[in-house]
Amino acid sequence: MGRPPTAARQLTLPHVDPLAGSILGPRDASRDDADAGLSLEDRLARRLGAPLVVTVTDNRRTMLSIRRVEGVRHVRLHHMFAEASPEVIDAVARYLAHGDRRASALIDAYIRARAEHIRRPASPESGALRTQGEHHDLGEILDEVLRAYAPEAAPVKITWGRQGASQRRARHRTIRMGAYLYDEGLIRIHPALDQAWVPRFFVAWVVFHELLHHLTPAPEVDGRRCHHSADFRAREATFHDRERAIEWERRNVRRLIATRDL
Fold this sequence. Notes:
Layout: E1 9-12, H1 29-35, H2 40-48, E2 52-57, E3 62-69, E4 72-78, H3 86-98, H4 101-113, H5 138-149, E5 157-160, E6 178-181, E7 186-189, H6 200-215, E8 220-221, E9 224-225, H7 230-236, H8 242-259
Parallel strand pairs: 2-4, 5-7
Antiparallel strand pairs: 1-3, 3-4, 6-7, 8-9
């Protein structure tokens, strides 16, 4: 990691010890004076000694990301960094330059200490989440999957999708059986799976797959989020009914597509 990054990198909302904020150390007032009046972009450019483009965001998940466009660093930073100390800006510069791990730990601690600045998703309206279907209870299935594979996972919500929501894509003979909404921490399962002939183990497989998006970071590569990283695939392979679920899907996917909008 000694060379400047050519692919995109990102820091998401960290899962670190909240006491790690102590590594920020004492604030240097003289260096504050040197940064006075400078924009966040100028503060970073001065440390890097190279041009860059900074976009300030109000993201809920990705706090820092970088990609190169024609040799210029394009950086997206959460607005909490606008008031960061020189020590934190130094760490951001080291991370942007060569992915410094100690700098990454310091940035994680800074984000954790300022979690109140991260915009929280609006609470879902009462009754908006529907876990009990006619044939499968997603709440029970999610609880079983969590107990078996991720008992220490951060809270996650689940719901059946809306019936007929895929009609606008009726020309495409596909079906998206599940989705994970990162900002909401919500798993949504296609209602076509709530049929008597769809086995519970297959619904659990789809729930498990979407849960992994909640558990596994999705790194950015060349400006695009990699949803199915090597770590994701390795964890996915631990599902005890994986082969049976894959075979069932192969045999029944056309029937699911045929009934998806009923």
